[in-house]
Amino acid sequence: MSSNTATEHGQSAMRFAQFKLVLLGESAVGKSSIVHRFVKDSFTDSRESTIGAAFLTQTIQIDANTTVKFEIWDTAGQERYRSLASMYYRNAQAALVVFDITQESSLDKAKYWIKELQKQASSGIVIALVGNKLDLEEERKISKDEAQAFANELGLMYAEVSAKTGEKVKDCFKDIALKLPLEEKLSQQGQRRRRTVDLNQRPSTNEQQCAC
């Protein structure tokens, strides 16, 4: 095998897909903390509330040849920003709906957002119900069985994480990536690349030009 062929084979083996992901949930459940733990591997107890939405990106390695890039929209949980949320989850391929395992009311708010997604978001969206603050297990008000049963009933992914310690945060995003239609996305990207090449092709210099 020539060196050029080997290089081409290596390049074709690398696969990259990009997906839009949105976080929804009541204010103070830790949406921004989860994102910052995933993106920057950092945590602060004094994080200010998100205004409108924040945008971040992060990649995650699925296997030796496949990388997924998340375009992450972290939405504000305050009531006054609720009407804006649809701007951010429109065309999203994945959503994390976050609740606080130590606050009973936060699961009810999460259920509201799940209903909104099911009504208005893309039909194929991957939804994960995520319980945060696993580090406060002794203060738990929502049992894992209760939340898991609700997620199972609606066919959702379910995870519990701790943004503070980082426990299971990366695993949660990787599990979501594995549920996304990677092969379909990669196929679409390949088709777009081929169309771009075809449009940019120049006529052969051997072709005769009409002098009509």
TrEMBL record:
Similarity comment text for this entry: Belongs to the small GTPase superfamily. Rab family.
Region span, Disordered: 189-212
Protein name: GTP-binding protein ypt5
Keywords annotated in UniProt: Cell membrane, GTP-binding, Lipoprotein, Membrane, Nucleotide-binding, Prenylation, Protein transport, Transport
Organism: Ogataea parapolymorpha (strain ATCC 26012 / BCRC 20466 / JCM 22074 / NRRL Y-7560 / DL-1)
CDD domains, A to Z: Rab5_related
Topology in membrane: Lipid-anchor
Cytoplasm recorded as keyword: no
Cited InterPro entries: P-loop_NTPase, Small_GTP-bd, Small_GTPase
